[in-house]
Amino acid sequence: MKDPWELHRRSLYLVVRRSIKLPFFEVFNEPDTIGSCAGRESTVVASQALTLLNGDDTFARARALAGRLWTECDGNASWAADRAWLLVFGRPMAANERRRAFDFLAAREAHWEKTPPSEGLEPADFGSDHLPPAARGAAWVEWCLALLNANEFLYVD
Question: Domain named DUF1553: which ranges (predicted)?
Answer without folding.
Answer: 7-104
